[in-house]
Structure formats: structure tokens, C-alpha cells
Amino acid sequence: MHDEPGYRDVPPPADGTISLGEPGLFITGADQLEVAHTLPAIAARLLHEVGELRDLGEFPAQASVRVDIKSDQDQLDITLEGLSPESDPDRVSTMTALRTVFELAGHLNLIDVTGRRPPWFTLHMLAVDRAGRPYAGLVGTGMGDIHPADNDLPRRRT
């Protein structure tokens, strides 16, 4: 139980929606509304969007992205391969790739900034060198514009 002002525990209803009872504030993008609410669908959409950006020259060509799904932890493990401290000593390409994937994933997540419900998923991203050793990373849920929502919201399904 939390004693902070404005915080209240909201038990999930059995029908698979979350009733906020009052307007909530969420970080989300339009993509969240267009994708099935499962981690495999979210991962597939994320990889598709990375491919589109690469085709447009807006994602490092030498970087590849692998997504492993941990449904039991509501987590996407993302590995960025193809870059290294030797090929990217100032980390500009690495950080660009990590931030890009993080922002794309944020558009697919549903993040309650009031803390009344958990995000759909957490990202655990590592950039690894040729030997598979991590050299950069990013962990979090997402970033983006905040939108109010005053109706029942879907729950993510595994």
C-alpha cells in the first residue's frame, strides 16, 4: 500500500480491461493502438520498423537487432549486434541505434505515468561486440508524448 498523495492501488477486473475510474496519463504512440496486444506482435512490429528505417538510411546499416521475448517477465530482451568499441569508438552509431529502438518501442508500449498500472513491457537492451560482450546498454519502458485516457484500456496479453 502506498501513502503518496494521488496513488491508489487498482485491482485488475476479470474482463481483461483496466478501468481507471478517472482520467489517466500515458506515454504511448499511435502504433500501440495498431498492434495486437501481445509481446510477439510487438516484437515483430519493432523489427519491421527498424528494417524500414534502415532502408531509408536512418538506422546504422551495419547494426542488426535481435529480440528475445520473456513473457513471464513482461520483458523484451533486445540485442544490438554488428557494432563494437573498435568500429564505433565514440559510440555515436551505437547510441543512435539504442535510442532509436527505445523510441520505437515506446510507441508500442502503454506506460502509465501515474504509476497506477505497470507498463505493458520493459526493455532490456544491450549492444554487444563481435565476441558477444556487452559494451553499451539501455533499460527502461519508453519515452514519448503523454496522452490522457479516460476509458477502459486493454491489458497486454502474453
Structure description:
This protein has one domain (22-148). α2 packs across α3 (92-106). The protein has 3 helices and 9 strands. By secondary structure, it is of the alpha+beta class. β6 and β7 form a beta hairpin. It is elongated, with a radius of gyration of 17 Å. 23% of the residues lie in helices and 27% in strands.
Number of strand segments: 9
Number of domains: 1
Structure annotation, total helices = 3
- End-to-end separation: 27 Å
Order of helices and strands: EEHHEEHEEEEE
Shape: elongated
Instruction: List low-pLDDT spans.
Output: 1-13
The helix content is 10-25%
* Helix/sheet category: alpha+beta
Q: Strand percentage, roughly?
A: 25-35%
Radius of gyration: 17 Å
The biggest sheet, with number of strands, parallel, antiparallel or mixed sense and barrel status, is: 4 strands, mixed
Give the mean pLDDT. 83
Strand order in the largest sheet: 3-4-6-7
Keywords summarizing the entry:
158 residues, alpha+beta, three-stranded antiparallel β-sheet, 9 strands, 23% helix, disordered N terminus
